[in-house]
Structure formats: structure tokens, C-alpha cells
Design a protein that fits this description.
Low-confidence stretches: none
Bound molecules: NADP nicotinamide-adenine-dinucleotide phosphate
Strand order of the largest sheet: 2-1-3-4-5-10
Order of helices and strands: EHEHEHEHEEHEEEHEEHEHH
Number of strands: 12
């Protein structure tokens, strides 16, 4: 049985739904089993037949983390370390989800797992600290760094864009940050592929969708796909703007494309291309009231 921690978040819900679809036994916890309290984790695990732990919980408010780094650290570092300690105590592997924000975004070719990390902000620092604590506390870990996550649950760029296309006359979207979107469904498939294989190829891996784009191009593609499927009635003008027009507390990475070569080689998977996954996602939400 898989223990999905953070089962009420965007990825946690997607992963739980995929387990239901594939008939894979799982049990989910969220805030009621606080990951910052190691004894809460221990007591939960004690009478369950857990084979894998997947940690989808995190402090994910990237901007707010600049003012609340201590709280973010408690969840993203101490909490992740607690989960690793408990997974080691009960002798099962854990899968942790990490982020492209561990890099400073100054690169110009896809980041490999071996590239030097250098987070530019509090969120990235706390997630990186979590990676390090996990490696200290258990040998049986997979850390999957992902980026630009979207899906049918929670707040994310694709859902926000579709809502704004209906509400606004035009939109400005930044065109000078490059990355790769990741459909939460594809990441969930990858997680379950690792579990299904009962893999022992522990370590750090990168997983996002294949290909690269900018937020501006991504928004245009969402608009085309949503129009084609009747999710919106018309396309509104989308204007490319540069990041300096949006003063922010957090320096967003200019370049955050992750290389998927390692995960593709080791697990023999073909990583889906972002445009194809976006189309599949849009298809999957057609007819839903909360699209
Ligand atoms: N979203 C992205 O674009 C993105 C990009 C790269 C990497 N990631 C990583 O991907 C993972 C999943 O992200 P997501 O967007 O699905 O996150 P999310 O929607 O924010 O979900 C996180 C869940 O964890 C819960 N949680 C927070 N603190 C907890 C605690 N102390 N104990 C137990 N549960 C707690 C949250 O509850 P509350 O809602 O009550 O706080 C929420 O239900 C995270 O590790 C994130 O860092 C995300």
C-alpha cells in the first residue's frame, strides 16, 4: 500500500485519483497528520501495511515564503526529513517531490541532476534543505524535481488562464522566462511507474513534460486548445511582456528547463511532450463544471 502524504493538494489529489483508476491500494493523509510532528507520522504508520511513501505535501506559497521562511523550512525541510526518518524506521522507500527552484535559473541548457544547485529564494532554499535532510535520514529515496505543475485540482497557471480568458478583454503574460510545463497526471504516472517496478535505483531525478516554452507561449497554447474544445467562446489578445514589468519579491528563474535524460534512460519511459499533454488535459476537463 502507498501512503500518499499531502493527499489534498494539487498533485496529491491527482495521484490519489490515478491510484483509484488503476486499482492501486493507497492511504492518504494531509494536515491532520502534520509532517512537522515526527510522532504523528510514527503513530499513523504503526498499524498500517505501508510499502511506499510518496510525499506530495509542501509549503508551496513561493512569494509568501520570503516572509515566512521559518514556517516554509519547518514543512519543506524538517517535515520532509521526518518522513524520511519514518520511512527508514519502517523500512520502506520514499518518493519526494522537489522543484526546479533549487537552481538559480541562469542556465541556458536543460539542467541535469548533477548540475550545481543555487536557489535564488526562500522556497527553493527550504526545498533544497529538505532534499539534503532526506538523503541524511534514509538511503531508500527518490527525489523527483519537477516544474510548472498544473492539473485539474488546486490553483495553477492553466486553470487561472482559462478563468481569465473568460473574465478579461486582454491579458499580459511574461515572455522572458523559459521552462517546461508538467501535467500532474504525467507526474503521477511516473511516480506509479517507479512504485510498480519496485525500483531500487534510488537518487535524484528530474521530471517535467518534454520541450520548452515561455509563460506567454504556454498561455497562447492554452487559449488555442481551450477554444478548440469549446471551453472558451473566443480568444482574447495575449500580450507578451517582460518580467521587469511585474515587480516581485521573488526572483523567478529565467531558465528552468530540466533534463529528463536520466529518468528516461533508467526507467525506459518516453516523457510526454508538453503540448500533447496540455491537449489531453484540456480534453479531460471538457464537460466539467469546475474546469
Ligand atoms: N505547483 C508547482 O508548480 C510545483 C512546481 C515544482 C514542484 N512542486 C512540488 O510539487 C509538490 C506538490 O505540489 P502541489 O502544487 O500539489 O502542492 P499543494 O497543492 O500546495 O499541496 C500541498 C499539500 O500539503 C499540505 N500540507 C502543508 N503543510 C503540511 C503539513 N505540515 N503536514 C501535512 N500536510 C501539509 C497542504 O495543506 P494546506 O493547503 O492546508 O497548506 C496541501 O494540501 C510539492 O512538493 C511542491 O514543492 C510544485
Amino acid at each position: 500500500m502507498i501512503w500518499i502524504i499531502g493527499c489534498n493538494g494539487m498533485l496529491g489529489k491527482e495521484l490519489s485519483a490515478l491510484c483509484v483508476e488503476k486499482n492501486i491500494p493507497f492511504i492518504g493523509t494531509d494536515r491532520e497528520c502534520d509532517i512537522t510532528d515526527i510522532n504523528a507520522l510514527r503513530s499513523f504508520a504503526v498499524d498500517k501495511k505501508i510499502d511506499w511513501i510518496v510525499n506530495c505535501s509542501a509549503y508551496t506559497a513561493v512569494d509568501k515564503a520570503e516572509e515566512e521562511e521559518e514556517i516554509a523550512y519547518k514543512i519543506n525541510a524538517i517535515g520532509a526529513g521526518n518522513i524520511a526518518a519514518v520511512s527508514s524506521e519502517i523500512g520502506v522507500p520514499m518518493i519526494q517531490i522537489s522543484t526546479d527552484y533549487v537552481f538559480d535559473g541562469k542556465g541556458s541548457r536543460p539542467y541535469a541532476e548533477t548540475d550545481p544547485v543555487n536557489p535564488a529564494g526562500a522556497y527553493g532554499r527550504t526545498k533544497l534543505a529538505g532534499e539534503k535532510l532526506i538523503a541524511e535520514k534514509t538511503d531508500k529515496y527518490f527525489i523527483l524535481r519537477t516544474a510548472w505543475l498544473y492539473g485539474q485540482y488546486g490553483n495553477n497557471f492553466v486553470r487561472t488562464m482559462i478563468r481569465l480568458f473568460k473574465e478579461k478583454e486582454s491579458l499580459n503574460v511574461v515572455c522572458d522566462q523559459k521552462g517546461s510545463p508538467t501535467w500532474a497526471y504525467d507526474l503521477s504516472e511516473m511516480i506509479l511507474a517507479i512504485v510498480k517496478k519496485n525500483s531500487t535505483s534510488y537518487g535524484i531525478y528530474h521530471f517535467s513534460n518534454e520541450g520548452e516554452t515561455t509563460w506567454y507561449e504556454f498561455a497562447c497554447e492554452i487559449s488555442h486548445a481551450a477554444l478548440a474544445k469549446g471551453l472558451i467562446e473566443k480568444e482574447i489578445p495575449i500580450n507578451p511582456v517582460t518580467t521587469d514589468k511585474y515587480p516581485s519579491k521573488v526572483k523567478r528563474p529565467e531558465y528552468s528547463v530540466l533534463s529528463k535524460k536520466k529518468i528516461a534512460d533508467i526507467f525506459g519511459v518516453t516523457v510526454p511532450v508538453w503540448k500533447e499533454s496540455l491537449k489531453k488535459y484540456i480534453n479531460s476537463i471538457c464537460g466539467r463544471n469546475d474546469a
